[in-house]
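Input.
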Amino acid sequence: MTAPTTAAASRSAAGPSLAKLVSHVPADRRWRRQADALIVIGRQLELMAQELSHTAHVAVGTLRFSLFRMHQARIIQMLPFCHSVTVYGEADIEPPHIPGITFVPVAHGTLMSQEWFLVIDSPAFWGALIAQTITERGDGSGRRYLFEGVLTSDERVVSRARLLLSLASGQPNAESFERDVLANRAHWGHVAYALATHSEAQRLDILGCLSEMPEMQSLLSLPSHALNQIAPEAIELLRRYCGSVGEILYRSDGDMLVPIAWSCPQRPAEQPTGSGVIGQAFIQGQLVLAPLLPTDPERALLSEANSVAAIPLTIRGLPWGVLLVGQEEFDPEESPTTMTAVGVVTLLEHLIAVDTTAALFLPPPQIPASDGSVPPPAPPPSQPAPSFAPPSQPAPSFAPPSQPAPSFAPPSQPAPSFAPPSQPAPSFAPPSQPAPSFALSQPAPSFAPPLLGSNFAPPSQPAPSFAPPPSSQPPHAMPGHPPAQPGPSSNPTPTSSFGVPAWMRTSVRQGAAPVIPSAAPTPPSGDTQNLRSWPILQKRLVTALVAYDQQAAEQVWSETCAIYTPEQICNELLTPVQIAIGDGWHRGEVSVAAEHFSSRFVQSKLLNLFNASSDHPGGPMAIIACAQGELHEIGAIMISLFLRWGGFHVIYLGQNVPNSTIEEMVQQLNPQILGLSASTVEGSHGLIAASQLIAQMPPPRPFLMFGGLAFRMREDLQSRVQNGYHFQGDIRQIARMLAEKIRSA
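Output.
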């Protein structure tokens, strides 16, 4: 995102502000992050919105409509599953016409024009990510936003935010509905786990953004998620944050419920699975709320409690145990303890599911009946299932993302990338559009031990990247599975990655009929040409890479490889995407980390194509390398690939090639062409020194070509390269010129 012309000064501006709604949040619960963290958090909330059976109202603040473009494809994905989607921002451009999305302009200089927010409201889940720009750092084109924000599940904040936004949009009658507080907390448990296990969680300090849910933050911050670590900490934080007055965690062992962690002075006795409050919760698989009578056996264990909540735990779709929580209130339904305890149980289910000992506590497989038949078991889900929600208000399921984005090292200098033309053509065909030179993108740049105040009894039992096939000149379409033909369904349903009990499932809540956009945002399923057009594929890939969604990016790549040639893919997909993301970084719309992630993706695909292409040992030899001190190699790989497709025998040396090695290879192999790339000033100095070495060599000397961002940014550097030819523009034109140069030599 482009840095504001004035930093935090706009705080005194007039107009509505969502940041004011969270001004009561203490300073130690606010966090400061760059856009990377906000994108990761927002993605998890967006996925949740798609799991709420068309009941979610979604409001998005993108600062300006021009910045909406970077999030457009991702937001469009929510449309078929949400009740409404509204985008707020400064109207610096005309917003696109997308059926189902309402655009609300925000006046320039107002508080809301400096706020990035995502508000989701539905009967079963509500929450808000509210952040405001506070400072600038750096100067020039590299200035970045820094946000101060709050991630909250506070119903009062969400309701007031919706009311404020509805007034700003001229629609003051915001829909009201009955809220399901337990289902909301369960869903927040899933969101918290997805955020904590994201591959970028530690680098971006995502856990630090969960300060409004300290019980979840504490449990997820444990250095170990083994059962013997998380069980006693869960007991401790229930009392610390939930206001409980007694806690016992049971696991099933055959026909008995065995206590494994407790806060009472003595070890609780084992209890048959069919008796008592915990037996009822375990057998029925439902939350049980009950007052404590003097004759109840739980009274001796939870002497300070007047009522109890028994919450079942379900692991991999099977009953695992029960958490018994004591409450001060005589009426258990009036106790706020239950809500927080439900979120803790959700996290326990996730954490126990990844413990290698968890399977030891699950019921054994079903035994065949006397006739030899075996009842078909329910398919185990890939993620643990939640096991609670008030019976009167069942909640829909939620699926956290199945593929977290891969992690990466922060870069030093992100930069835009090289772009061949937008129109595909055979090798050596004249260009239809000029493009920058071939040296392109630069890569973008413990938790504390818990305080245990409980007892714990250890268990009694021991505890492919897509690689295209070889291609030749001219390249042919790569074989593979035919692309899917998706199209908007009349009643789309998101796919959940784990199951939930039947009493938590519902297609639509009472009184909330599904609302589908009047017109689909994408062409119908039969219009496969438009679905696979280059603009659509480019937008999908940019969206996936900016969101660190490796799985979605690989899906776009596989679909493209199934129907287009490698040359078309380079010209019409990889290069335009890299340019868009690089330009977005310079405008401040794309984070350094996202630029780096996309560069790694593009580089890996180009290397796949290069390694799969056929070399031509009898053709003219070309040595291509990144200059000494240069680490950014996408442009060098691209020119190597097109030269190989053009019939050259290409030797690609990679990044940071010492000048002594280049000089030695030139003397040994006597190539016709030597191509060097430099995107940084440091790399350009190495390239200039290499040109001096080549100029001093006796004939025949190779034809020296060079290019890269450094020479586009600093034209004075070009004149310092001795006997070299600087090329930029259409990479196929470069290859054609080189072929003619060699033939005429």
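The radius of gyration is 30 Å.
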